[in-house]
Automatic annotation (TrEMBL):
<keyword id="KW-1133">Transmembrane helix</keyword>
<dbReference type="Pfam" id="PF13616">
    <property type="entry name" value="Rotamase_3"/>
</dbReference>
<dbReference type="Pfam" id="PF13623">
    <property type="entry name" value="SurA_N_2"/>
</dbReference>
<dbReference type="InterPro" id="IPR000297">
    <property type="entry name" value="PPIase_PpiC"/>
</dbReference>
<keyword id="KW-1003">Cell membrane</keyword>
<dbReference type="InterPro" id="IPR046357">
    <property type="entry name" value="PPIase_dom_sf"/>
</dbReference>
<keyword id="KW-0997">Cell inner membrane</keyword>
<dbReference type="GO" id="GO:0003755">
    <property type="term" value="F:peptidyl-prolyl cis-trans isomerase activity"/>
</dbReference>
<dbReference type="InterPro" id="IPR052029">
    <property type="entry name" value="PpiD_chaperone"/>
</dbReference>
<keyword id="KW-0413">Isomerase</keyword>
<protein>
    <recommendedName>
        <fullName>Periplasmic chaperone PpiD</fullName>
    </recommendedName>
</protein>
<keyword id="KW-0812">Transmembrane</keyword>
<feature type="domain" description="PpiC">
    <location>
        <begin position="230"/>
        <end position="340"/>
    </location>
</feature>
<dbReference type="InterPro" id="IPR027304">
    <property type="entry name" value="Trigger_fact/SurA_dom_sf"/>
</dbReference>
<comment type="similarity">
    <text>Belongs to the PpiD chaperone family.</text>
</comment>
<keyword id="KW-0472">Membrane</keyword>
<keyword id="KW-0143">Chaperone</keyword>
Length: 702
């Protein structure tokens, strides 16, 4: 009581402390999200126009729902971003050019979208604009909210129509002249016969060529557009897999083996001991599998080639009631029992009529008794005239696909149908008509054809997954935590080596990447690496579906021009090739290909019917620069050394065949026009995008 009295005396003081704590919590969150200005309410800014974070999130969620979950959040974010970016940039151009869609164009788009909607079609099945007007007028009177949604829909159509006009204007403005058509014709049809000598770059060892850091830097500076890069991170990490120990495997095996024999369990309801049948003695193998197996498989007949290949001989040759196992397959211990052996057809062709009823999976309004009576009646009709089944299936069947195919199920193998259906077609002969009840309803079945019967076995298999136990998982967690602490306080590489862990590295991870090689989707790792307070050398543990990874940031790279070190892997081969080319050119002497070949100890090769459209040299591959240089030679002339993609060439132009002139080059001009127009809009968008001022903040939120 004394304590309570003291608390009451200081209640105002306590309330003040709690209020200050709550204010500090809210203030910290405000600071993290960009202050009170609300700047981070946008996902991005494009040429001064903000993209709302909330609206963007709704579109991402809607996109994922449309894709039915077959796409990751990051993939959905990128798709929606591309759409938004395209819309904003193109809309700016549409606005600047003053493009407006006429009402007729909007109506045409509406007609295309709603032509199949029965609400807006007349008795002839044609789109009726008057019905649209009636619908809109009704919305205006009865549902102001839906009316506003309709107006937004029309506005969207208008914007799309204007954007289509803009896209068509770009495509229309791109084309090829008759002169360009003539050039294209000759590029494709003028041919040359050549003799050449190739001195490959591989003839000089890489050890003979040195490329300095200053040369790499100079090359990068001279090709800035090629080496502009986004902000990136380098990461190294160790994977810890949550795998079962040998003890775990033996425990799972023992657990499965216990299912073989009968066991006694106390029944708290009857207050007596019950004997539970084991796998060896159970009379209902399917129920036993359903109740005890980690993998539920139907107990059906299988042919030898349908059994697991590694164990097919053992399983196929079991005696009825005999059990094989435990045996290990694909991460499971398994026990398999041969239930029955039978001669059955490998393939069956049948037709059926499905009659649903209230409570059956096929549904329906009729009672079960009515469905059974109708099935028996239809079966009688089919027995007397089997050709009637197609007509009756079309009229009565509640299986839509079968109804469309006149009840024909085509050919199928044992096990493809539900068990009772399967049993009927396997236990009866060709020409049999019968009625079978399944969870879907009553089936009238007509067996049309069966292949020759052969031996099959009905196998029941109980599986137990081999997985890490809680003790193994706890041991792994302790191991991972120990390494995380040691790597954070000491040297990551040395700690990993001392524990014999494999270190994996990944370079140039971008802010919106989501995959880490070796572990798949690990968006959280990337987000952590790009956090503002993340530093080079930071270490952190992350959960994965199969265990853990412990990662370290090894480098932070800013947006801009690549450093010589980062560009070296791309630039060194280029500069090496250039230096080798100069060294080879200095060694080449002689005025004919034969002289060059003799002095360089190479062979003279020939290439016939070479053209500029497909600049390939037989024996050397694609060499567009070489073929282009030779095209300017006179017949019989020999080139100076030409640097190609795979080496240095000396080429003699043996002959040149000019394609005959045409009366008109219009088809070739049209072909060029079509080719150019296909890429026109995407290229225009990329050009506009490169000019746009874009502040992309997606990585902060996703």
């Amino acid at each position: 009581m004394a304590v309570l009295n003291k608390i009451r005396q200081r209640s105002v003081f306590l309330i003040l402390i709690i209020a200050l704590a709550l204010f500090a919590f809210v203030l910290a969150d405000v600071i993290r999200s960009g202050g009170f200005s609300g700047k981070d309410n946008s996902i991005a800014t494009v040429n001064g126009e903000e993209i709302s974070r909330e609206e963007f999130a709704r579109q991402v969620e809607a996109y994922q729902q449309n894709m039915r979950g077959n796409i990751s959040t990051t993939q959905a974010v990128n798709r929606v971003w591309d759409q938004q970016l395209n819309q904003i940039i193109v809309e700016e151009q549409v606005e600047e050019l003053g493009i407006r869609a006429e009402q007729a164009q909007v109506r045409q788009m509406m007609r295309a979208q709603m032509s199949q909607n029965p609400q807006f079609t007349n008795e002839a099945g044609m789109f009726d604009e008057n019905r649209v007007k009636e619908y809109v007028a009704s919305l205006k009177q009865t549902s102001p909210q839906m009316y506003q949604q309709w107006l937004s829909y029309e506005e969207g159509l208008s914007e799309s129509a204007a954007q289509n006009i803009y896209a068509n204007m770009i495509r229309t403005g791109v084309g090829a002249t008759l002169t360009e058509g003539k050039q294209a014709y000759h590029l494709q049809n003028n041919t040359m016969d050549l003799r050449y000598v190739q001195v490959p770059f591989s003839s000089i060892s890489d050890d003979e060529v040195e490329v300095s850091k200053s040369e790499i830097k100079e090359y990068v500076d001279n090709h800035k557009a090629k080496f502009e890069t986004e902000a990136a991170r380098n990461i190294q990490y160790v994977i810890f897999s949550e795998e079962p120990s040998p003890e775990d495997k033996e425990e799972a095996k023992a657990s499965l083996s216990e299912l073989l024999e009968d066991r006694v369990e106390y029944n708290s309801v009857s207050k007596s001991n019950d004997t539970i049948a084991g796998f060896n003695s159970t009379s209902d193998d399917q129920e036993f599998v359903n109740s005890n197996s980690d993998l539920t498989q139907p107990v059906t007949f299988r042919f030898k080639n349908q059994l697991p290949k590694e164990f097919a001989d053992e399983l196929f040759n079991l005696e009825e009631g005999e059990v094989h196992g435990p045996y290990e397959e694909n991460g499971y211990w398994k026990l398999s029992k041969l239930v029955e052996t039978k001669q059955i057809p490998d393939s069956i062709k049948a037709s059926h009529i499905l009659l649903g009823y209230q409570g059956a999976q096929a549904g329906g309004t009729r009672t079960e008794e009515a469905a059974k009576q109708l099935a028996d009646s239809l079966a009688g009709v089919v027995r007397s005239n089997k050709s009637k089944i197609g007509e009756l299936a079309t009229e009565f069947s509640d299986d839509p696909s079968a109804a469309q195919n006149s009840g024909d199920l085509g050919y199928f193998r044992p096990g493809m149908m539900v068990p009772t259906f399967d049993d009927f077609v396997l236990n009866n002969n060709e020409g049999t008509v019968g009625v079978v009840k399944t969870d879907f309803g009553y089936h009238v079945i007509y067996i049309e054809e069966q292949t020759e019967r052969e031996k099959a076995v009905k196998i029941a298999t109980v599986s137990r997954e081999i997985e890490a136990t809680e003790g193994t998982r706890n041991k792994l967690f302790n191991e991972v935590t120990k390494f995380e602490i040691a790597a954070g306080e000491g040297d990551f590489t040395e700690e990993a080596k001392s524990a014999d862990y494999r270190i994996r590295t990944v370079r140039d991870v971008k802010a919106l990447d989501e995959n880490i090689p070796g572990v798949g989707q690990q968006r959280r790792v990337v987000q952590w690496a790009f956090e503002e307070d993340a530093k080079v050398g930071d270490v952190k543990r992350f959960d994965t579906p199969a265990g853990y990874i412990v990662a370290q940031i090894t480098a932070k790279k800013k947006k801009g021009l690549m450093s010589p070190e980062d560009a070296s892997s791309e630039v060194i081969p280029i500069l090496t090739k250039q230096k080798k080319a100069e060294m080879i050119k200095e060694k080449i002497s002689g005025t004919t290909v034969d002289q060059v070949a003799e002095k360089q100890d190479k062979i003279v090769q020939t290439a016939n019917a070479v053209n500029l459209s497909s600049p390939t040299l037989a024996g050397a591959g694609s060499e567009p620069e070489v073929v282009g240089a030779v095209y300017a030679l006179e017949v019989g002339e020999t080139s100076k050394p030409i640097v190609g993609d795979k080496g240095v060439y000396v080429v003699e132009l043996v002959s040149k065949s000019e394609a005959p002139e045409l009366d008109s080059y219009k088809p070739f001009a049209q072909q060029e026009t079509s080719s150019r127009r296909q890429m026109a809009n995407s290229r225009a968008f990329e050009a506009l995008k490169s000019k746009a001022e874009i502040e992309d903040k997606r990585a902060k939120f996703y």
